[in-house]
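Long-time lurker, first post. I've been practising inverse folding by hand and with some scripts of my own, and I keep getting stuck on stretches where the structure tokens seem ambiguous. Below is the full token string for one chain I'm working on. Before anyone asks, I'm not after the true native sequence, just a reasonable design that respects the backbone. If someone could post their per-position residues I'd love to compare against what I wrote down in my notebook.
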């Protein structure tokens, strides 16, 4: 399962890397807008392909007719309540025709959100900016010796503090500071094996991997930025607490998820007529 998840991640990373590479020069907001537009169109197109469009159109037309009837017979309570029952029945029929396509759409939607979080969730450290490095171990016994784990950083990064052990959480934490721009590897060693974690300092806005985690197919899919840590390692995960990337909208910082959801929904509905899709 893990190897299949890694293969899928490689494909998704390639596709989104190419797409993001073509749009990133526009800046965070406009590149996100472009991706939201493509996502909205893709989701509407998929909905049209996996749904019963004839049944949805017939159900919508009948539901609209019943709603008009509510206005026409609002003074006749017997007819009014009968129409209300029909509105409820046809609403459930509409939901029945829509629920399966919506469940199918959840699969590409989750994949897109995971990839977008990789590119828009966090930003690289700036030169002179510090961050926390957190190493989680598989077993508390690996923390028995103070020198059990060591952190080696390249010249681009300065390790500012010794490792702080948190036995209850099976964690060791360091604080590091960016010295020079670049992308490089931070090495965590237990004396036998060494595990690398990608670090990004400065440069152009790029996607950053916040965590490298163990060989679970789910964690692999949720954290596609780096290959999973081998299961035989005493290290379960290595995390760098990068600053969040805020999208500026009208001068106000905002998490990427809010404008993405709004833009993809609005733009998707705007193109449903062009695609001939009934929703």
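-- Answer (accepted) --
I ran through it position by position. Result:
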């Amino acid at each position: 399962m893990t190897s299949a998840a890694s293969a899928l991640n490689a494909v998704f990373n390639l596709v989104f890397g190419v797409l993001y590479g073509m749009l990133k020069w526009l800046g965070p907001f406009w590149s996100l807008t472009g991706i939201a537009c493509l996502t909205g169109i893709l989701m509407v197109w998929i909905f049209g392909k996996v749904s019963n469009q004839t049944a949805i159109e017939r159900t919508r037309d009948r539901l609209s007719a019943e709603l008009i009837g509510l206005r026409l017979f609002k003074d006749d309570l017997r007819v009014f309540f009968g129409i209300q029952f029909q509105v409820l029945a046809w609403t459930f029929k509409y939901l029945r025709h829509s629920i399966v396509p919506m469940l199918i759409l959840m699969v590409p939607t989750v994949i897109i959100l995971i990839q977008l979080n990789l590119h828009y969730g966090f930003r690289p450290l700036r030169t002179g900016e510090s961050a926390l490095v957190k190493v989680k171990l598989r077993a508390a016994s690996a923390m028995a010796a103070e020198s059990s784990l060591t952190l080696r950083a390249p010249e681009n990064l300065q390790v500012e503090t010794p490792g702080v052990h948190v036995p209850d959480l099976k964690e060791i934490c360091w604080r590091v500071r960016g010295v020079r721009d670049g992308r490089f590897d931070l090495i965590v060693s237990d004396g036998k094996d060494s595990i690398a974690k990608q670090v990004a300092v400065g440069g152009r806005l790029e996607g950053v991997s916040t965590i490298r985690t163990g060989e679970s197919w789910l964690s692999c899919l949720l954290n596609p930025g780096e290959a999973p840590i081998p299961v035989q390692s005493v290290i379960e995960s290595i995390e760098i607490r990068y600053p969040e990337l805020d999208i500026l909208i009208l001068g106000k910082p905002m998490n990427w998820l809010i404008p993405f959801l709004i833009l993809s929904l609005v733009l998707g509905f705007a193109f449903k007529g062009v695609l001939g899709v009934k929703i």
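A couple of notes from the structure itself: The chain has six helices and eleven strands. The chain has two domains: 2-121+252-275, 130-243. Happy to go over any region you disagree with.
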